[in-house]
């Protein structure tokens, strides 16, 4: 009961992690654990690549790419901590948007690093920098350091593929776009490793420019990741139409909640406005009551509950009864 | 039976990988400009700047000192005769950029400021620097001549007793 003696609606006070149903909370908890595992694996790879990198530009870029791939998991963990906070007078929409902010920060750093590396790698080509790669003595045997680089690249390229696949599944169940971007980068990691290996083999056969070309290829892939992620994250923050976790199509829930609203007895017409807050959706439903219907607070409350029950993602619902659908605020499906 | 069988299989696999790797390690790396092939049985172009005890110029046209001895040992190994160029380190670095030198000696250390123009070898010896710190002594190789670099580094490691 609230102070006016009305029954407190079940879901209004919840936000943060409580906005997620039990199953999603469990997935979130296991994702957080898995992100820590992936950070440890990445740090080990970064150290291994740093130790053997030597003078190869391709190895340097591969090392920086591995380091950059730490950003999305860190952004995810920071955001996951932030969304625990409940909504308040100060933050009436809760803190789910921190997912989007984390995404923008990670994307902007990727873009900046990618741009820098494209220029840096092109300069090695322009200045005809021939990468020296010499001998290394391991357990009393002298081997060419290039073989060690290739070995490290092969070994470190395998775990991210599996980590990426696992994260992709988690991203779908959590509807988490940072996690999606993260998984996408991990999954594509092996292609950069392959380019780097070809670059090092190029040095081996005396083609010095192969190293620079491989470095440019990998830099462009970092730049591409940056552009793709920045576009997706800005779309989310500027309240674009809610889309599926991979951003590929409009989210089907928008039409589903409209259907539920229209099928309510006292509703003649309904058009919704749905935005993605990160994990959860915020719905504003404009409803036109049927001729002569008396719309009470309880009617609206019941409809609100009905919409919230469509799926866990429908988190924050506002019902706006109107005489006619405002053409400048609500837009029908094409 | 199965355990020993799979173990034998593993050893066979590891062994063939090692053989393959060893086979390849002879083939790679190659030089980007073929310095080692040219120098083997031919002429090795070496620049020296005076820096006793590593390099000393006693009489015109002859270079002595511990690094000069090392280079002579290496040249003998690959059957090369040495063409000496004596100059200041900055001039030698420029000559190396212009592909006129294969190697440079003169008490270079692993943290040499010339490393963008001269590729340092693995340290072949440690010594005391002027400030009492440990210096890692290296020889300069033309960057990208990786066959020459690996061949010289192998020679230096053998001299040091690492191989």
From TrEMBL, chain A:
Q: What is its main location?
A: membrane
Q: Which UniProt keywords apply?
A: Membrane, Transmembrane, Transmembrane helix, Transport
Keyword Transferase included in the entry's annotation: no
Q: What is one Pfam family matched by this protein?
A: Cation_efflux
Question: Which Gene3D superfamilies does its entry note?
Answer: Cation efflux protein transmembrane domain
Q: Where are the transmembrane segments?
A: 34-55, 101-119, 139-163, 190-210
Compartments, record wording = Membrane
Q: Which stretches does the entry tag as region Disordered?
A: 1-20
Cation efflux protein transmembrane domain: from which residue to which, for each copy?
39-235
What's the protein's topology in the membrane?
Multi-pass membrane protein
Kindly list any coiled-coil regions of this protein. Answer: none
Task: Name it.
Answer: Cation diffusion facilitator family transporter
Source organism per UniProt: Brachybacterium tyrofermentans
From TrEMBL, chain B:
InterPro entries linked: Solute-binding_3/MltF_N, TAT_signal
Q: Which Pfam families match?
A: SBP_bac_3 (PF00497)
The record places domain Solute-binding protein family 3/N-terminal at 46-158
> What residue range is the signal peptide?
1-27
Question: Per its UniProt entry, which superkingdom is the organism in?
Answer: Bacteria
Signal in keyword set: yes
Alphabetically sorted, this entry's keywords are: Signal
- What PROSITE patterns does the entry give? PROKAR_LIPOPROTEIN, TAT
> This protein is called what?
Transporter substrate-binding domain-containing protein
Which species does this protein come from?
Brachybacterium tyrofermentans
